[in-house]
Design brief:
Elements: H1 20-48, H2 52-60, H3 65-93, H4 95-103, E1 105-107, E2 113-115
Antiparallel strand pairs: 1-2
């Protein structure tokens, strides 16, 4: 696209081992984007399962919003948080596929292919 509007003379590959900072940023953004959606779905579903009566009772007894969060929301959200954490750890082990896709495989000195950042 940049070549078509004549702002570049030839195509440029920005995600190479020569731009390690840019590759790292791209990998971090891709991982955050990939993990955020599933974590959000799990946590919103967990919040939806908390009965509203608990919050109404806390209001009657004069609990502040902060106290309601610590005494109602967080303890009842614990199973969802545990599930989200376990899935995020599993997804963290899959980051190598993202590194290979964005950073590419680089031939090493002994002829093997290795991941590079």
């Amino acid at each position: 696209m940049m070549v078509g509007i004549r702002s570049l003379e030839r195509p440029a590959n920005l995600l190479t081992y020569q731009n390690a900072g840019l590759v790292f940023l791209a990998i971090a953004l891709a991982e955050i984007w990939r993990a955020t959606a599933i974590m959000l779905v799990i946590l919103v579903a967990g919040i939806g399962l908390i009965p509203k009566e608990y919050y109404e009772a806390a209001d009657v007894f004069g609990a502040s919003k902060w106290k309601q969060f610590w005494r109602i929301t967080l303890p009842l959200l614990r199973p969802s948080l545990q599930t989200a954490l376990i899935l995020r750890v599993i997804m963290a082990f899959e980051v190598f596929a993202v590194v290979a896709a964005l950073g590419g495989l680089v031939p090493s000195f002994d002829g093997n292919l290795c991941l590079s950042i």
